[in-house]
Structure formats: C-alpha cells, structure tokens
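Homework help board

Subject: predicted structure for assignment chain

Our instructor gave us this sequence and asked us to write out the predicted structure in token form, then describe one feature. I got the tokens but I'm not sure how to describe them. Can anyone check?
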Amino acid sequence: MRLVATALLVLMAAVFLTCRWLGPVHPAIGFVRAFAEAAMVGGLADWFAVTALFRHPLGLPIPHTAIVPRNKDRIGDTLANFLRSNFLVPAVVARRMRRADVAGALGRWLAQPETRDSRLRAGAGRLFGDLLEALDQQRLGGMVKATIGNRMRALDLAPLIGQALAAAIANDRHLPLINGIVHWSGRTLEANEALIRGVVHERAGSLMRWTGLDETLANKIIDGLQQLLVQMGEDRGHPMRAKIEEALGQLAHDLQHSPEMQARVDRLKLEIIDNPAMQAWLDGLWESGRHALLRFARAPGGVRRGRLGEALRQLGETLQREPKLAAAVNRFTRRAAVGFAADYGDGVVRLVSETVRGWDTQTVTQRLENAVGRDLQYIRINGTIVGGLVGVALHALDVAL
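My token output:
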C-alpha cells in the first residue's frame, strides 16, 4: 500500500509537469493541472505528516519529527498507566466482570467456533500472539513460575492425600494397588532368585555348604515366599493383606490428623518444589503453555480438529445447558480476575513499561508502523485525492469569477 500511495504521488507530479508543458491548449487542461497540482501538494503534506510520526523526513532533523522514537519511554509509561487505571484496579475489574457472561461467551464460541465473528476472532488472536511474543519472556515466565510455586507451597497437601486415600479404601479402590504390589513383589522375587541363593550360601556355615543344605534352605525360602505371594493374590482375607490395609488406613488417618505426618509431607513438598529438576520442569511447563497459546492464537482452527476439538465443542454445549456450571465458571473467573489485578497489577504495569523501554527505537517504529501501516498509507492516498478535488473546486471558482 505504501507503493500505491507513492506511485499516486509520482503520477500527480507527472500529470502536473505534462500540463505545464502543454500549456493552455484546451480549457480542460487547466482543471487537470489544478487537480494534479493540489493533489501533489496534499499528497506531499500527508507524506510528511505520516513520515514525521516514525522518522525524520529525508533524514533531516526537522523539529517535532520522529515523534514515536523520541517519545518511546513516555508511550510505554502511558500505556502501562492506562492498563493500570482502566483494567488492573480490583474495584474496576470486579465491576466490569460482574456484567460479563464469560461462561456463556465461552460456551457459544466453543460450541460454534466458525459461525460468528471469525475475522474479529482471527484479528484478536493475532493481536494476542503479537503481544505475548513482545513481552519480556524471562520476566513473564518468572511471574508465572512464581505464581505456580506459591500456589503449590500454600497447598495443604497431606489432608488432601489422606482424604483421597480414605475414600479409596472405603470404596475398595485400593485393591488394585495391593494387587499391583503383590504382583510386583512376585516379579521382583523371581528376578532376584540368584541374589537370594548367593546370600544364603555366604551366610551358611562350611558344613552346610559341604552337605548342600544351603541350596535346600535357599529353595525353601524362595518357595515359601512364592507361596505367600500367591496366597495373598488369591485370598482377600489373607492376614498379610489385612496388615497392608491396616497400614494404609493408619496412613490415611495420620495424613489427616497427625501434625507430625503433615509436617513431614510439607517438608517433602517444599524439597520437591525447590529441587532444580522441579524448577526446570516449571520452566518447561511455561514454555509449553506459551507455545500452545501462540499456536492457538495463530491458527485456532487447527486446535478445533480431532478429539480435542470434539471435547471442546462438548464443553461449550455443556456450559450453555447447565446454568449452575456457567454460574460457577463466571464466579471463578471474577474472583481470579480480581485476585490477579490485586496481586499482580503493579507487576504487569512494570512489565509493560520496562518491556517498551527495553525496545530500541527501530523495533518500536517497526511494530507500530506494521500495526497501522495500511491505514497510514490510506491517509496519504486520501490526502492526494482530496487535495486534487479541492484544487479543481478552487480552479472552477476562479474561472467563474
């Protein structure tokens, strides 16, 4: 579009020079010349205005030009303050979210993703993708990782595990676990027969080794353990299974009511969270989530195909059919948005401001110019045409007088 606007300006200059060279050979030439002259002036004026927003015209340091690069930091601060004042104040967020039917909109969009406002969604998706790529990924990832880590640290894990284990025991859902332990023990015993025989042989005296009783003893031990595991697998009332169930029940009780057990679980949880491997996993989790968001923003249609797409459509239909579920989603969304604004509003403002401040002037210019570039070139085209029409009108008035 920039090429079209420039070509139109060059065309008007060529028409003006041609009319000037031809002279007054016909009365209509005056109107053409007036149109071309005024169009050339209007096009040049709008070219100067558009160019002055992003750079110095012709490289000349004319005052009050290159406005965007010179005010980059102020633009970042203004944008950040705009976000803080209009979007990240908890009271404002709560008031706006109270009127928002997030569940209804999400349900309609998931159930019928291609029927309405596809261009608007595509444009919003591209804008979201550009914004996500533009932000400081290290700081943004750090914020996400810190949020997940804080939520995990605040989670009282032991009672939840105890309640889940107690519910599993009450409904006999722990039986596959016991069966799995028994089968695993059998496979382990079979795989380590040689080790058991070696231990018995080393611990036996020389007389037993000379008479071969050590081998007999090892066979008895292995056969006895195998029979015990077989009986445990076949008999639900076996005393050993009862001991295991009793231990599981005691563990479920301790997890829910024993401060010592809860403290041990909490220490183990904190050790796992602070482990470098867990921190690396959280980093990978954020990167995977970010790439998934970018893929969805760039090509949302690809996500809606296949089993995942069918599951999303079913979720959308459920959100529209179940008022209680929709109300719960809206309530959760409201609370999450207000909590995010209260806890991280200042951090988001600083992130936006410092991200824009960290851009070099060429990056800022390119991003803004690419975002509104077509409209700016239309301004040049419109200025050329409107200037020409004004020139024709003034020439007609001059002829009439």
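Reply (TA_rk): Your tokens look well-formed. For the description, you could write something like this. The longest helix spans residues 361-400. That's the kind of observation they're looking for.
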